[in-house]
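Students often ask what a 'structure token' actually looks like in practice. Rather than answer in the abstract, let us consider Trigger factor, a protein of 437 residues. Its sequence is given first.
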Amino acid sequence: MAVTVETLEKLERRITLHVAAADINSEVEARLKKLARTVKADGFRPGKVPMNVVAQRYGYSVQYEVVNDKLGAAFNNAANEAQLRVAGMPRIEQKNEAPEGQMAFDATFEVYPEVKIGDLAAAEVERVTSDVTEEAIDKTVEILRKQRRSFAQRAAADVAQAGDRVTIDFEGKIDGEPFSGGKAEGFQFLIGEGQMLEQFDAAVRGMKAGESKTFPLQFPEDYHGKDVAGKEADFLVTVKKIEAQHLPEVNEAFAKSLGIKDATVEALRADIKKNLEREVKFRVLARNKGAVMDALVAVSELDVPNALVQGEAERMVAGAREDLKKRGVKDADKAEIPADIFKPQAERRVRLGLVVAELVRANSLQAKPAQLQAHIEELSQSYEKPAEVMRWYLSDRERMAEVEAVVVENNVTDFVLASAKVTDKALPFDELMAAGN
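Now compare that with the structural description of the same chain:
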């Protein structure tokens, strides 16, 4: 019997399914008999419970399972016969009228859309490049020095200055009243490194150990503490201790402490450059990939299945709960996170996924084994034991699926860049790094 598919709106379709009542009853009876062999009930030995008792206790749930199984099979058969690509799960509702001896159901669902990718030659993409400069290497060396710095207490006559670590007591008041988070004892911070608001930082500079002072502080309008944002407070601060920092010299000993095999400054800088170039490569690739995906979506036409968007939004909610759980938030799995807040992002993900899938299919951009191998080798080079990292990837199907997805995206990026109107832009190293934070 030919399947009749009714088009409702855009991607929404409806099929009427028929299931023979006799088939359902027969299957329910068979399952209840099987269940009766093991079911337990007070007053009866196992396997000796009367069928009427088994049917009374389990009949409804078994019938529900059987109907669902029969409908699932009927829907799959109908969808296959009609050559439909179903997006998401169908919504099934029983009809009041049905042919004699049958049960009738309406299955309403969505299908995958036709994806029309426009002229890629008309797409405009800004492709960035960036180089690792000597200045960038110098800055990284300074970061490494600061990570290994030591502190020594200053003389009593010395004043606090930039780079010093100070230990202080402070108390702030607004209109003469204390406020939450405005008081601390034995608090440490480094002057001039942005750990405190600039007004607070500046007030402590020039003070001596044992000295106290009161000063006004204006909280910014966008301050993270909403209760004090935009307000002026009066702070009383007492300096308890001042420590001068000592940065290690950049020499062979410093290089050795960082695990550099040759233990020379030149080898250290070469190692830093290599690591920075790897990071720059991945950041440039990610930025260019994002620009390509934006351009690809802009030149494509398709209707997006609501079922897929809802499913993606629900996965994002689950991901948000998992993130809260990792942060130690109590009852994170029960957090009320409405899926609607993720809907715009979910819609874009689904749209982009459908467009990319069509471009890959139409242009044979699937990941090749050699590409997967090369990508894993590149990822492994940033680790101490690359061979073990490679085995870690190759031994797990899910990890390999993630690698495959990245390689496919890289193939799509290269394909679009080869066709689109590309404008090249050299991006300063610092700007590239700041954009990724």
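One point worth highlighting: The chain has a mean pLDDT of 92. Ask yourself how you might have guessed this from the sequence alone, and why that guess would often be unreliable.
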